[in-house]
Amino acid sequence: MRKISPNDVKSDFIDQLAALEGFYHTGFGKFSTDRDRSTLTEQSLLAAAVLWEGFVSEMFIAYINRDAARFKAHLHASFAEHVALAPKQQRTFETFGALTFPEHLTKSDVQTLADGIGNNITFPNFAELEQRAKTWLVPNHANKFRSLSAQQKAVINAVIALRNHIAHRSPRSLDAMNEVLAAGALHATGIRRTANRFHNVGAWLKAVPVGRQESRFVTIVRVLNDVGAAF
User: Fold this and answer.
1) What is the largest CA-CA distance in the chain?
2) How far apart (Å, rounded) are the C-alpha atoms in residues 223 and 215?
3) What CA–CA distance (Å, rounded) separates 14 from 150?
4) CA dist., res. 123 & res. 61, Å (int)
5) Which pairs with CB-CB distance under 8 Å and at least 24 residues apart come from 141-145?
6) What is the DSSP string of 37-50?
7) DSSP secondary-structure letter at 209?
8) Nearest Cα to 67, choosing from 170, 169, 137?
9) pLDDT on residue 116
10) 217 within 8 A of 163, measured Cβ to Cβ
């Protein structure tokens, strides 16, 4: 049975980012008002966040599809932990039951076992992604995520926080966004916020920081591209 290619997942992600950046530059040149350009930039950030989410989900599935040893061990441990909470069911299973998996888990198998209702495999921040990779993926695959730089991980957290605030516009998401964007690891990228909080995401993203040659949005896309290339 043909397995999913992580290289194909990577290539698709990089191609999609390039297409998004091209679309952004074309649209930016067509719009003449700051408001329209800010709106375009916000929507483009949302698109980048969606691409990132899809990339992570597909890469997890591809890696497990390639080598499911760690994922199967996790499922065994989770099942044993659950059964242990019900003594009668535990005795019954220990006497008559057996939990076995096929040697190869298909893409459909992985999707069903990872999320029974068909959602993407998603994470609220990079720390949880890294922990899940350690739990579900064999070491050489999990290390692809672990080995990203602190700066790259901080940018990913920024993308998630920006996406959440654009989508929800709540006081909580605003606070979370400003907190994440104050991370020291972002300093060299030009997307670390100053001491002043902000709420106009589109204007902030489309601005070119002092000493930089590109907008914050373009910087984010380029970092995501570098992250994808690392796989």
Assistant:
1) 73
2) 13
3) 21
4) 14
5) 141/63, 141/66, 141/67, 142/70, 144/230, 144/231
6) HHHHHHHHHHHHHH
7) -
8) 137
9) 77
10) no
Helix (H, G, I), strand (E, B) or coil at 113: helix
Kindly report the pTM of this predicted structure: 0.91
Spatial separation of the C-alpha atoms in residues 3 and 68, rounded to whole Å: 12
Residue 26 backbone phi and psi in degrees, to 5:
-65, -50
CA distance 222 to 217: 9
Write the CB contacts of 29 (distance below 8 Å, at least 6 apart in sequence): none
* Cα–Cα distance measured from residue 168 to residue 82, given in angstroms and rounded to the nearest whole number: 35
Q: What pLDDT does residue 157 have? A: 98
For residue 93, the model assigns a pLDDT of 64
Low-confidence ranges of the chain (pLDDT < 50): none
Comparing C-alpha atoms, which of 216, 170, 176 is closest to residue 197?
176
pLDDT of residue 153: 98
**What is the distance between the alpha carbons of residues 195 and 218, in angstroms, rounded to a whole number?**
22
| φ/ψ (deg, to 5) at 227 | -60, -50
**Measured distance CA(114)–CA(75) in Å, rounded:** 10
